[in-house]
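A quick aside before the break. I want you to see a complete sequence-to-structure record at least once, exactly as it would be stored in a machine-readable document. Don't worry about memorizing anything.
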Amino acid sequence: MAVAPPRVNVLGLSRDDYKGLATTLCAGCGHNSITNHVVKALYDHGVDPYRLAKMSGIGCSSKATAYFVERAHAFNGVHGRMPALTTGAAAANRQLLLFGISGDGDTASIGLGQFCHLLRRNVDCTYVVENNGVYGLTKGQFSATADIGSVQRKGSINELETIDIAGLAVELGASFVARSFSGDGAQLVPLIRAALAHRGTAVLDVISPCVTFNDHEGSTKSYRYLKEHDVVLHDLDFIPRQEEIEVEYEEGTQTEVELHDGSRLRLRKLGREHDPRDRLAALQVLDQGRRQGEVVTGLLYVNPEAADLCSRERLPEVPLRDLGEEELRLTREQFAALQQEW
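That is the input. The structure line, written in tokens, reads:
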């Protein structure tokens, strides 16, 4: 009996072409679910593996870059330094599609300073935070994203204020900010695709329960807590620029955000009237969610008009490695004119 050929995307690649090594994370880890959603998003989006650059630091989350798109470029840096590496890669080669994978420790603790400056510079990259509220590699201590009152597996209660990664991203200038849950692929996959199409820093704060250290009664990042307290802002559809939009909805039931490449993110209201283009509204909905013990998920904020770092600095589209001496070195006349200006 003939075997049907595998389905392929617009580049003629199968979904298997976007897979990587076998995971070494704990069975049931939310990070593995995120990897599967990343694979689907990259396949559906038709990302060229040789243009993709996977960036990561240290932690359970940062191991994830080994588990998808084996043929892509990859740089696994030291703890908390991934934002600086990503900034350098973006400046050196604007042809790369930069995809960072980090964790709540790598981003909100040792890497917090670098993360903040990546946001305010609006570096063109997709930045996924696999957020479980604990340090999985060092036996489950609270991380900086643990909620006040959250209970550790051994009974300790977190009394320190939490760092809200999504709120921080909105505050400091990221031009695309969303939150999702590792178990909600229907929401996360279109968000990843929209982040890939966005020009600027696209932060995805993905709550990802740690089955070993943070999936028990009293944890605010367990599977059960997320399912009981998840408040979804929108029903999402990502429409690539090559697809014609034919379906129309009644006025007031949906809104669309057009990204710089012509792709669109269609948002259908689900209870809360939230406009993701309103920066203040994004901060308010996050604050309200925290006060009510809710985990608000969906597209929180987007500004398609914001200039990214390389555009603002007028860096060339040609990778810096391909520029010759005549393009990088001033002539005697140009140098003399520059001296005259001073």
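Two observations worth writing down. Residues 30-45 form the longest helix (16 residues). The first strand starts at residue 52 and ends at 56. We'll return to this after the break.
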